[in-house]
Amino acid sequence: MHVGANELSMQLWRERELLEMLLFKLEEQELLLLAGRTRWMQHATREIETVLERLREASMSRVVEADGVAGEWGAPEGSGIRELIAKAPTDAWRGVFSDHLRAMTQLTGEIASMRDSNSQQLRAVLRATQETLASLGDDAGEYTTRGDRATSDSARIVDTRI
Predict the structure, then answer these.
(1) How confident is the model at residue 112 (pLDDT cuts 50, 70, 90)?
(2) Is residue 147 part of a domain?
(3) Between 20 and 30 A from 152 (CA), which of 86, 108, 131, 142?
(4) 78 in a domain, yes or no?
């Protein structure tokens, strides 16, 4: 019986679920960007940060579980999943951990691609916002009650009798 291997496998399932959640949150962020709904961006970013924190915690737990399995299987301490696959005592465990590794590698690739895409879109949004703000500083002009453009920079009194 390989109790440590069962626990490690369960830990890897939790990490996979968190990676899927991260990908989902990044896709939400992308949809907000595409829809121009930047008002909600801080909420999407906070949710992404929360999932990332949970992933960091899960990763630390995985390292502890992997060290236990490494000890059981005669692998060096600090062995990663690849090393554990190589030291697995049965084909079944090699298959289980290979599936986890394959799925997690695929998810991290998708996450990296989505993150890069979102970063480019966020930079474009920032650039457009900065250009808009800069154009607001331009004098749009003021007009007199006759409809003529007022060109002086002198103080103006608002005529409330209009």
Answers:
(1) very high
(2) no
(3) 131
(4) yes
- The model's confidence at residue 95, banded by pLDDT at 50, 70 and 90, is very high
Tokens of residue 41, six digits: 């961006």
Q: Determine, yes or no, domain membership for 76.
A: yes
Residues 96 and 79: beta-carbon distance below 8 Å: no
Instruction: Please give the DSSP secondary-structure letter assigned to residue 149.
Output: E
Query: How large is the angle between the packed helices 41-73 and 3-34, nearest 10 degrees?
Result: 160
Q: Structurally, how many domains does the chain consist of?
A: 1
Q: What angle do CA 13, 14, 16 make, to 5 degrees?
A: 65
Rounded mean pLDDT, 62-87: 96
Question: Which residue shows structure tokens 């399995």?
Answer: 69
Judge whether residue 146 has pLDDT over 90: no
Q: Name the residue range of residue 21's domain.
A: 3-135
Name the more confident of 135 and 92. Answer: 92
CA 122 to chain centre: 12
